[in-house]
Amino acid sequence: GDSVTQMEGPVTLSEEAFLTINCTYTATGYPSLFWYVQYPGEGLQLLLKATKADDKGSNKGFEATYRKETTSFHLEKGSVQVSDSAVYFCALGSSNSGGSNYKLTFGKGTLLTVNP
Amino acid sequence: ETGVTQSPTHLIKTRGQQVTLRCSSQSGHNTVSWYQQALGQGPQFIFQYYREEENGRGNFPPRFSGLQFPNYSSELNVNALELDDSALYLCASSTLGGAETQYFGPGTRLLVL
Asked: Positive or negative CA dihedral for A57, A61, A67, A70?
């Protein structure tokens, strides 16, 4: 079945450091890929997405490129801020065989803490 | 535009009881998906409702059931609660059976004692 493996945390960085959170997936077909962010005590917010190979999703300085050859979708940001502290989830979206249902399969999440 | 809302925000139940959680979808969305997020884990797909019909189910027992109403709001019902049902329950709304981006509500935190 579909699965997502992402870098175990926690990750602790200083403000303005470079961020990479690794994500790899296993899926049949050609899933869409997503990064969601969860701030303390809140639900999930979509950060960025990519729907086909070589697409780059970007938002708020974060980027991720859909790499079909390595089945990866690593999240990067050039300069993190304290306000980026949160849990980040990589997810893939896939349909059932009949194509009528579309569900998200999530990784376990990576806790990022950014210190001033 | 109103986002996805869920109620209640927190709930405490005892083992064996039943619980109903509610979700109002975002305006214009006809699909609601429910996810269970255990502490320290990623969300897991429970089931999806599309135009008032169940439209796919994850690996959850039948005591997890749901409804979707004509206004596309939804309920998640859990019977015979077990301790392991303690989790954050998230609903997400979308269009086209979930194929478009899913927008999540803030969740209901359920504690089973």
From this structure: negative
Cα–Cα distance between B5 and A97 in angstroms, integer? 31
Kindly tell me the burial class for residue B14, based on how many C-beta atoms sit within 10 Å of its own C-beta (0-12, 13-18, 19 or more).
exposed
Laid out side by side, the sheet with B74-78 consists of B5-7, B19-24, B74-78, B64-68
If DSSP codes are grouped into helix, strand and coil, which group holds residue B11? Answer: strand
Cβ separation of B41 and A109 shorter than 8 Å? yes
- Residue A115: per-residue pLDDT: 96
Binned at pLDDT 50, 70 and 90, residue A97 comes out as: low
Distance between CA atoms of residues B47 and A3, nearest Å: 17
Chain A residues within 8 A of B106 when measuring between CB atoms: 42-43
Who wins on pLDDT, A30 or A112? A112
Closest to A90 (Cα-Cα) out of A75, A100, A79:
A75
List of residues 6+ apart from A69 with CB closer than 8 A: none
